[in-house]
Q: What sequence folds into this?
């Protein structure tokens, strides 16, 4: 008999479509943090919840729809659409939409709500294009709860639910008000509902475990804050919040959740999902000091900016178990960074990288090719900088106009060609289609990015550094990663 439940959260995703063959071994399998947070919120309000994690279980959209309709009888099915990295919700819309269509085909009376970065950025379009009854255009928890309450009342009128788009006699109805952001995160969303997740299925990114490449599980991801006060034009992270914002859980609540993960699940590898963790000094050091007192053997990575890292913080971060920092370097060109609203002084990048490495913290450098002011020469400068820095790992991206970003808005305003389907926004997909700019075509940008990937990870100096730090097994692992075919429709001969 199907389990009766208030809300079933379905985490969508198709690793093969997003990563091609890289998804089989090299990418992470991450817990769905927002599904877990939303489930925790509902439980705190006396509601029941379950989570179906599609990519973690390795099931198809068809299997997900069958489980959702046969094993559960949910008042509301919620599909939180978030990405494998903060700005990449859109690439999961293909999986999300397919799951919703299959559920509706199997059970037309199922009520489905989509939330997440992409639906919040394009709520009306999501209502028009997807087989859903509702879309939330803000962060979600209160809107989900109030939608459940309206469904319980069976009145058929959802106009009083803030931030909810719904269908009113065949027409799309917009919300009359916006739901305010949650202020007391400790009280309202006190951690993730870990007991609803298949904790044995998750694994860390390959680079995150360079110190022990054969042991990438168990693994967990947590938030210590929500939102970001910056406004880089390529980022859509604040779409669900309606504005640039920054809210934090207390250090005590964060470390209490880590206590649970370590003691209950033997977790060592942890990702801090915050778009910007190294920002509020008291917050960061409060967490680090509590972790240091615990004496855990942790392997944590988190996001930072070149201009938010302070030298006197690094030793305390390392003692707490923070072993990797992800830096948004983006471009070697100040002009390109300034045009993307990412102001950093060039000289600070090299000195900050060396300062972090001197503290025995590894760096994953993030670079973007094809931003609006980029040229072939400037992209080459960025590649040269990556080769000079020799961060312990690097993410190389093409500029992508994610819905909810300023880059997307400007592309629409200027009539720039956009990808035709949502999965074309995936950086590693076969038909990935970057945004062209005034100097470069989509194909030129993608070709440079892929060539730069191979150049970075076959560079003799980089591989020598990796062997010194992590040993020959990691060099061999990188060799297999680079040899993995990544065919591209756009640049195929």
A:
């Amino acid at each position: 008999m199907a389990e009766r439940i208030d809300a079933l959260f379905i985490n969508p995703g198709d690793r093969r479509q997003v990563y091609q063959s890289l998804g089989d071994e090299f990418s992470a399998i991450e817990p769905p943090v927002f599904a877990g947070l939303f489930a925790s919120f509902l439980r705190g309000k006396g509601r029941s919840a379950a989570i179906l994690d599609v990519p973690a279980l390795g099931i198809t959209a068809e299997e997900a729809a069958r489980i959702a309709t046969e094993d559960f009888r949910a008042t509301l099915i919620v599909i939180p659409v978030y990405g494998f990295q903060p700005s990449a919700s859109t690439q999961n819309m293909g999986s999300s939409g397919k799951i919703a269509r299959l559920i509706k085909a199997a059970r037309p009376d199922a009520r489905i709500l989509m939330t997440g970065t992409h639906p919040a950025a394009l709520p009306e379009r999501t209502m028009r294009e997807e087989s859903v009854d509702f879309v939330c255009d803000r962060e979600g928890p209160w809107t989900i709860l109030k939608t459940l309450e309206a469904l319980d009342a069976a009145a058929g009128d959802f106009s009083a639910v803030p931030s909810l788009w719904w269908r009113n006699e065949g027409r799309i109805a917009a919300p009359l008000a916006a739901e305010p952001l949650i202020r007391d995160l400790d009280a309202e969303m006190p951690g993730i509902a870990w007991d609803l997740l298949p904790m044995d299925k998750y694994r860390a990114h390959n680079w995150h475990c360079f110190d022990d490449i054969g042991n990438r599980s168990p693994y967990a991801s947590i938030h210590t804050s929500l939102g970001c006060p910056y406004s880089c034009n390529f980022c859509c992270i604040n779409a669900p919040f309606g504005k640039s914002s920054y809210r934090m859980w207390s250090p005590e609540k964060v470390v209490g959740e880590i206590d649970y993960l370590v003691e209950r699940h033997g977790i060592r590898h942890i990702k801090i999902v915050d778009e910007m963790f190294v920002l509020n000094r008291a917050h960061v050091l409060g967490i680090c000091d509590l972790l240091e007192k615990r004496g855990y053997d942790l392997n944590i990575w988190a996001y930072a900016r070149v201009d938010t890292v302070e030298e006197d913080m690094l030793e305390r971060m390392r003692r707490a178990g923070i072993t990797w920092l992800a830096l948004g370097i983006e471009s070697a060109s100040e002009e390109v960074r300034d045009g993307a609203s990412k102001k950093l002084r060039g000289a600070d990048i090299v000195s900050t990288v060396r300062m972090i490495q001197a503290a025995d913290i590894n760096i994953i450098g993030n670079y973007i090719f094809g931003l609006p002011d980029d040229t072939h020469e400037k992209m080459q400068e960025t590649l040269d900088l990556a080769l000079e820095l020799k961060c312990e790992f690097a993410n190389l991206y093409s500029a992508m106009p994610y819905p909810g970003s300023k880059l997307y808005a400007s592309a629409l305003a200027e009539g720039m060609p956009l990808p035709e389907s949502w999965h074309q926004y995936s950086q590693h997909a076969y038909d990935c289609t970057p945004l062209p700019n005034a100097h470069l075509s989509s194909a030129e940008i993608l070709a440079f990015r892929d060539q730069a990937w191979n150049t970075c990870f076959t560079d003799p100096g980089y591989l020598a550094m990796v062997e010194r730090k992590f040993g020959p097994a990691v060099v061999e692992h990188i060799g297999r990663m680079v040899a993995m075919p990544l065919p591209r429709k756009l640049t195929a001969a």
Summary: The chain has a mean pLDDT of 94. The domain at 3-173 is CATH 3.40.50.2300 (Rossmann fold).
